[in-house]
Amino acid sequence: MNFSVVTSQFASLVLQGVALGLIYSLIALGYTMVYGVLRLINFANSEVFMVGTFTVLFIQVTVLGHAVTREPMHGWPLILALALSLIAAMGVCALLAMLVEVVAYRRLRAKGANRLASLISAIGVSIFLSESWRIFTDSRPHAGPRLLEKWSFGEFHGANFRIDTMMAIFASLIIYMVLLRFVNGSRLGKAIRAVSMSEENSLLMGINLNRVVTLTFAIGGLTTGAAAFFYITIYENTVFNVGFNLGIAAFTAAILGGIGNLRGAFFGGLALGLTEQFASAIIGSQWKAVTVFIVLVFVLLIKPSGIFGEAVQQTRT
Amino acid sequence: MRLEIKDLSVHYGKIEAIKGISIVVNQGEIVTLIGANGAGKTTTLKTISGLRKVSRGAILFDGQDISKVPAYERVDLGISQAPEGRGIFPGMSVLENLEMGKFNRKDRRSEMKEDLNRVYDLFPRLKERSGQAGGTLSGGEQQMLAIGRALMARPKVLLLDEPSMGLAPMMIANIFQIITTINTELGTTILLVEQNAQQALQRAHRAYVLETGKIVKEAKASDLLNDPEVRAAYLGTGAGTGH
User: Fold this and answer.
1) Quick check: is A148 in a domain?
2) ipTM of the assembly?
3) Domain assignment present for A14
4) What is the CATH number of the domain that holds B157?
5) What average pLDDT score do residues B183-210 get?
6) In a domain, B242, yes or no
7) Amino acid A77: pLDDT
8) Which chain B residues have any C-beta within 8 angstroms of a chain A C-beta?
9) Of A84, B72, B133, B208, which is most buried, counting CB atoms within 10 Å of its CB?
10) Rounded Cα distance, B228 and B241, in Å
């Protein structure tokens, strides 16, 4: 135990915790969006994230020809390269999420299958994707190139405001706010909310359920794809089972905040990221996962619906 | 507008909940379907709306069989339902709930204001509460919201499922008064499912009695009000006792 780091590295731990937490939040939004409309944990979301990280590498290394050993880029080429990788990751993840829905869940829903059947189907897709990727990649970790030179805006009490960290934080906040506005204000967003409150009554309004479900998976894919991009930009490597750890953490974040609730996913992610950083610093990083789950168990004991959880009938954003 | 249900059967798993019923609703009518709990009234309405699958028979709407049309397209055809238990969206405001009522209509933008005003004229209470979350309304207000929301789609036929359920007597009278108003002033055809047979038969033109999935009587509503069997079974007053 080393409590002195809490004071000596406080600002740094907060900054790192917020950055990691927001990446969790983006993935957690993927779980929570789908859960909100279908009451289904889409376990394949963690593999959507994994495919997103490889999409970023594919764009940067193969398409743009930026080998891992090359010098960082600058100016407009850099901005364009980053934008292209972000858009590609979001797009591929959205398409993959929609495909997973059609292949693994749609028929089960049409037949009125038990929710457990969908859950098993979700786990099946998740294993299929990660194990196929293990074969494609020979189980090896893949390093990402450094497109972005990691200069710092400056230091504040030991916290290093690095460009990649700051980019992840600001972009995540923007994505979260755009999503909130969309779900609360737009016509399709309202359809998503309506379906999350009642499928039957949404049908009576003339809402095409399948379209709303597809849209929801697409949105979950978009936020998860963005998370994959920021993850690669900060950590610069990935592996076929990267989705497992990140996915479990993000899923925990969604539960912690109150699953089905956008605000819950956001703050659940932040809380988890901060807990992880502080726990690693105080009792050692090998205890990170243990601490996270102890926190989860305590939250669930005290408030089983999560921090922002409400009764299901009142699911709000 | 003419809604005709022909020899309709509906199954829940292996159990036949609706056993070959036929119902006709003509333009401008209020038709009521009365019966005890579990007789199949709600199932009938849900099948007309497309929430339940037809296992035999047909649902003809203006002569076209719509039994294979998906539920969400039936609203556009002109069939709207205020479901049992109101079914409003609790986390949405009153205004948002009303807007959802015409989610899919092509001319929703140009029609919105006019339709909102029409609903607010019928239910001034909804106008006062337009910004309030639907879940915080009283039972009677929620019922108004459910009916108002169904009217937003400019239905040719309005399906009402137990609008009086769980309401105080004053509010029940109020809701039934409004049902008559919707029929006479807006000219909307109504198919009304009710357990409160007394009120329903007073308001309706024609009535059907449903018992365990079968139509056992069909007559003018005023005749059924005086039918001894109906009085004994549904109006709580035995034949010949007067009241």
Assistant:
1) no
2) 0.92
3) yes
4) 3.40.50.300
5) 96
6) no
7) 87
8) 49-51, 70-73, 75-76, 80-81, 83, 87-92, 96, 99-105, 135, 149-150, 153
9) B208
10) 10
Q: Using CB atoms, which residue from B75, B90, B96 is nearest to A206?
A: B75
Mean predicted confidence (pLDDT) in A12-34: 95
Q: Can you give the residue range of the structural domain that contains A248?
A: 4-139+163-315
Cα–Cα dist A180/A167, whole Å = 20
User: Is residue A92 within 8 Å of A52, Cβ to Cβ?
Assistant: yes
pLDDT digits over A265-280, tens only? Answer: 999 999 999 999 999 9
CA dihedral B160, B161, B164, B166 (to 10 degrees): -150
Give the span between the Cα atoms of A252 and A226, in whole angstroms.
Answer: 19
* Model confidence pLDDT, tens digit, residues A208-223: 999 999 999 999 999 9
Whole-angstrom distance, CA of residue A103 vs CA of residue A105? 6
Distance from CA of B177 to the nearest CA of A (A): 24
B91 → closest Cβ in A193, A200, A208: A193
State the amino acid at position A213 in one-letter form. Answer: V
A173-201 tens-digit pLDDT: 999 999 999 999 999 999 999 999 999 99
Supply the pTM of this predicted model: 0.91
How many angstroms separate the CA of residue A315 from the nearest CA in chain B?
7
- Is A315 within 8 Å of B70 when comparing Cβ atoms? no
Rounded to whole angstroms, the Cα distance separating B74 from B47 reads 11
